[in-house]
Amino acid sequence: MRLCAQVSATASIIILVQAAAIASPVEIDTFLDMLVYEPFQQILVTIVATNPTDTQIGLSFTSSYQTGYMIDGVYDWAADKFFAQAHTSIIIPAYGSYTRQFTHSSGDYFLTPGPHILDGYVVGYGSDSVEFTVIPEPATLSLLGLGGVLLIRKRRSRKPS
User: Fold this and answer.
1) Class of domain 23-158
2) Which of 47, 54, 96, 137 has its CA 20 to 30 A from that of 13?
3) What does the pLDDT look like over 113-140, one tens digit per residue?
């Protein structure tokens, strides 16, 4: 079961919608192109729905909104998107899979340095989480190091000899 945040266009009210996963043997896996990123680096998100059975499986959706991802339970890729309200479906052959890729950039949602959790999901069928880390870019680390050295020098120069 997964919680999605849905934002009303007219009233900026956040409503939590509980989407129960449909009983299905489909396995959901989420992959990232790397596990460590710099703050402005793009992230390639891959969501794979795999059919482990010997018969084809059909996934049915009430709109064109089929897959997406959330970061830290705060940013939902789908929150500012428009989806056609037409019934859609995906057929996954026996022992086959369906893959969807997204490119996340800092313009979508800026990621501060530190650990993060990304949940990739197939709407109504399940989700999978992956952890990744954003590290400060080398220039930021250099400035922090230089600042530390300057503080130590300043303290030493203030001590009476």
Assistant:
1) mainly beta
2) 47
3) 999 999 999 999 999 999 999 998 775 5
